[in-house]
Amino acid sequence: MAAMTAADFYDAKYDDFDIQPLLENDRIMIGYTKCFLEQGPCTPEAKDFRKAIPEALETSCGKCTPKQKKLIRTVIRAVMEQHPEVWEELVQRYDKDKKYRESFDRFIKEED
């Protein structure tokens, strides 16, 4: 097995991204999801996240650091529970043919 280098991961600057405001404030969470759906403005962070979504979906977050995986699982679980209709819109946009659904669902269900 080859050793992973820093270049094999997404930028670690988001390892300590504070997700609490998203989880505690519906307006902020919906703002991020609207950005991801290209239905609203994006913060610089949300724009970076949006760029990574297709690859992260295809690889089940293969380039995510362990901290990023935990953050992503937490946020996605919250969107799925609190806004299932928005989650379906995101699935339709990024995985319309459900090519990655099974592997990504396994990723979401993994323990951190």
CATH topology-level fold name = Antennal chemosensory protein a6
Fraction in helix: 55-70%
Task: Work out the count of structural domains.
Answer: 1
End-to-end separation in angstroms reads 22 Å
Total number of helices: 6
> What would you give as the CATH superfamily?
Insect odorant-binding protein A10/Ejaculatory bulb-specific protein 3
Radius of gyration, Cα only, in angstroms? 14 Å
**Regions with little confidence, pLDDT below 50 for 5+ residues:** none
Beta-strand fraction estimate: under 5%
Set down the secondary structure blueprint.
Layout (H helix, E strand, L loop, with lengths): L19 H5 L1 H11 L7 H15 L7 H17 L1 H11 L6 H9 L3
Helix pairs in contact: 4-5
Question: Any overview of this molecule?
Answer:
This is Ejaculatory bulb-specific protein 3. InterPro entries: A10/PebIII, OS_D_A10/PebIII_sf. It comes from Eumeta variegata (Bagworm moth). By secondary structure, this protein is mostly helical. It has one domain: Orthogonal Bundle (Antennal chemosensory protein a6), CATH 1.10.2080. Helix 4 packs across helix 5. The model has no long low-confidence stretch (mean pLDDT 92). It is globular, with a radius of gyration of 14 Å.
Quick summary of this structure?
The protein is an all-alpha fold.
Which properties best describe this structure?
about 110 residues, globular, 6 helices, mainly alpha, about 0% strand, single chain, about 60% helix, Antennal chemosensory protein a6
